[in-house]
Amino acid sequence: MSDYRSEEEALGKAYDSKLMKRLLGYIKPYKNYVIFAILLNIVVAALGPVRPLLTKIAVDDYIANADYDGLLLIGILLFSSLLLQSVVQFFLTYFMQYLGQKVLFDLRTQIFNHIQKLALKFFDKTPIGRLVTRATNDVEALGELFSSGIVMVFSDVFIIIWILVFMFFMDFSLSLVTLSVLPVLIYGTFLFKRKARESYRDVRLHLARLNSYMQEHVTGMSVVQIFNKEKDELKKFSSINKDYRTANIKSVFYYAIFFPGVELLSSIAVGLIIWYGGGEVVQGSLTIGVLFAFIQFTEMFFRPIRDLSEKYNIMQTAMASSERIFKLIDNDT
Predict the structure, then answer these.
(1) How high is the pLDDT of residue 268?
(2) pLDDT tens digits, 68-110
């Protein structure tokens, strides 16, 4: 059990620059795919905020003036932007999944090739199940990082940037009012990050205990049965299993608080837009189209923030798995 526990003790870091640099080395042979994916991300991110802008034009220029021809044109443009975004998103998803599977193929091949070169004494002291886990489960855990983690982070960041550009271009003061909830969001995000890291580490430690106990007692089941210790061992296993369950529930608890919290801040931002923007509309210094656009922008703005939080979870899993994989690859005994 101590081997498993010590192997999990180093999983407190959610991001390790050395590990990430080494992981990125596996993408280097496919850098053209990455560049293409980043360009597609920029296009997808830009197409999203176009819709609120078209909504603003439709309301202010065509609905207000009863211009049915102009309204039809806006409708066609909206449909075209959605269609184009769907097509680009298809190619982006396909290329990212393709990239992820190519990297996983190379990594699995390297691991198996390395295992074949290890000395016989290594297999005497290393459980076979652990080696299988490294080549399968841990490698698969990196799949999300390569297919929807690294490059897709750019997509979320680009979406936020484009939304901010469109918002400040439309109305500077209303943009500041809308973003007034950001300090609370930033504080909550950092708090969530710290708590999620601690709970994730706790989950991994209890999982290590569970794996270790299962391996030792399934392998030595004949000894357990000879001494008639089934009930005692079941009690011990139930205690370890209970601790693992509690750790998982605690981890879910932080996510259950954070995501509704983001939704609450999003609703507060919409309320501020209606309060301040509505007053500006009444005074005649703001159009109703801009008000509609800002409400759409706000809904779009908080979505990538939630996605980035999910990417943080992917990053934690990937760092833990890569650390164990590289520990095996670097073992020359």
Answers:
(1) 93
(2) 888 899 999 999 999 998 998 898 888 888 888 899 999 999 9
DSSP 49-87: HHHHHHHHHIIIIIITTT-HHHHHHHHHHHHHHHHHHHH
In 3D, which of 158, 170, 93, 169 has the Cα closest to residue 301? Answer: 158
Per-residue pLDDT, averaged over 205-211, amounts to 79
- Token pair, residue 239, equals 């205690």
Q: Which domain range does residue 149 map to? A: 2-329
Residue 189 near residue 261 (C-beta atoms within 8 A): no
Are the beta carbons of 318 and 103 closer than 8 angstroms? Answer: no
Task: Write down the residue that tokens 């296009």 correspond to.
Answer: 43
CATH code, 274: 1.20.1560.10
Task: Please give the Cα distance from 304 to 309 (Å, whole number).
Answer: 9
Distance of CA 63 to the CA centre of its chain: 40
pTM for the whole structure: 0.74
DSSP reduced 3-state for 117: helix
Q: What is the DSSP letter of 135?
A: I
Size of the chain, expressed as the number of residues it contains:
333
